[in-house]
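Tokens as discussed.
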């Protein structure tokens, strides 16, 4: 009788869990669970958010919060660390690799390695090429496991990213996933020696939870969603709304999200006299965000490259709006043109061009048949390239290939 090999157990490593803005990670985990992949979640920090998305409740995977080292004295830290790693097969190589890292990451990596060994975790996958990838990399070295990570946007584009650090992470990973072809090209150009292991898997959507409806007969409502930070371009949106108001266009604009620029953006709205047209709704549960999108005539995502290099990768909410049937206006930042194909699945305007944004908004608000045409094409593109079940199947095949190759290498060794 043929025996099917057991499904590998995967450890997902994240900095904080849950995060209001990281629905793409939850979507991915839920799709894995639906496909029968056993996994556990390891978080380096407790969540600092005050609001959570409804889908968090559907996740069955156990969550372990790794204790931090900052409650220990230096002597206690090294005593605990050395006691922990001595029972692990790769502790010598791991400590050598850890010389560049901060104490907290090394300590949490040792704890993660022990947890992974005790729970039968065979592979670690981190989201974001920052501390989560650092801890996953060191834990994999300590425990003799394999690891991979998904790179998104800030973790590769921000001015704070250190080339040597990212290079080490890529070199030691069995594969590096990123969320757009733009990101792949960016990483290939900087890490050519590791280009073969860097590939694109789009963040996917559960389309069964995002039913399409035509926007042709919706009221003139503009919706924007995201953290209130520079790269989202909400200042440009408010300026464009001012232009619409001055031209006598009938519209309402709802900005959903919280963040450090709330007071600044609110002051701008008031200074321009837009209180009756532009509303700041704060962060909302996903079901309420979807309800707002389903009533919107236009979705605006005027993303920009921040002064510190920070930029969006390919915003999940932009893809969700496309799936739901909201015609989208965005910019040519990073991977966005891979989803918003100008005049085919949406409209692209230049960054920081409030006049062009106002023109595009006015055009879609006043042309319902064009809204319907773009929305239908957008939904077709989402179904072709952004289905969560297809995309996570590709990721699981990477895990399977990695573990198969490791088993062969162990037998040869």
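Sequence:
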């Amino acid at each position: 009788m043929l025996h099917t090999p057991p499904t590998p157990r995967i450890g997902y490593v994240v900095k904080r869990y849950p995060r209001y803005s990281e629905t793409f990670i939850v979507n991915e985990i839920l799709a894995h669970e639906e496909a029968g992949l056993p996994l556990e979640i390891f978080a380096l920090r407790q969540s600092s958010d005050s609001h959570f998305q409804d889908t968090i409740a559907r996740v069955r995977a156990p969550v372990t919060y790794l204790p931090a080292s900052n409650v220990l004295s230096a002597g206690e830290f090294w005593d605990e660390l050395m006691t922990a790693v001595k029972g692990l097969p790769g502790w010598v190589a791991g400590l050598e690799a850890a010389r560049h890292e901060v104490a907290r990451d090394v300590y949490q990596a040792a704890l993660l390695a022990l947890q992974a060994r005790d729970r039968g975790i065979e592979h670690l996958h981190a989201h974001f090429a920052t501390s989560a990838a650092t801890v996953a990399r060191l834990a994999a070295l300590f425990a003799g496991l394999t690891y991979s990570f998904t790179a998104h946007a800030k973790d590769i584009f921000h001015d704070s990213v250190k080339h040597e650090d990212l290079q080490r992470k890529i070199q030691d990973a069995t594969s590096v996933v990123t969320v757009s072809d733009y990101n792949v090209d960016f990483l290939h150009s900087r890490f050519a020696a590791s280009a073969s292991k860097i590939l694109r898997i789009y963040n996917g959507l559960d389309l069964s939870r995002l039913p399409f409806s035509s926007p042709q007969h919706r009221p003139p409502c503009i919706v924007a969603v995201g953290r209130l930070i520079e790269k989202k371009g909400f200042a440009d949106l408010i300026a464009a709304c001012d232009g619409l108001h001055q031209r006598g266009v009938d519209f309402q604009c709802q900005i959903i999200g919280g963040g450090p620029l709330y007071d600044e953006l609110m002051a701008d709205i008031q200074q321009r006299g837009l209180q009756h047209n532009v509303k700041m709704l704060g962060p909302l549960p996903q079901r309420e965000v979807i309800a707002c999108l389903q009533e919107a005539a236009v979705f605006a995502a005027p993303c920009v490259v921040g002064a510190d290099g920070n930029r969006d990768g390919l915003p999940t909410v932009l893809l969700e709006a496309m799936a739901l049937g909201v015609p989208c206006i965005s910019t040519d930042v990073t991977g966005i043109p891979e989803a918003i194909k100008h005049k085919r699945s949406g409209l692209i305007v230049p960054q920081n061009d409030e006049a062009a944004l106002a023109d595009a908004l006015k055009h879609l608000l006043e042309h319902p048949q064009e809204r319907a045409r773009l929305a239908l094409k957008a939904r077709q593109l989402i179904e072709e390239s952004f289905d969560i079940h297809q995309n996570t199947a590709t990721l699981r095949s990477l895990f399977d290939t990695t573990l198969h190759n490791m088993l062969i290498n162990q037998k040869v060794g």
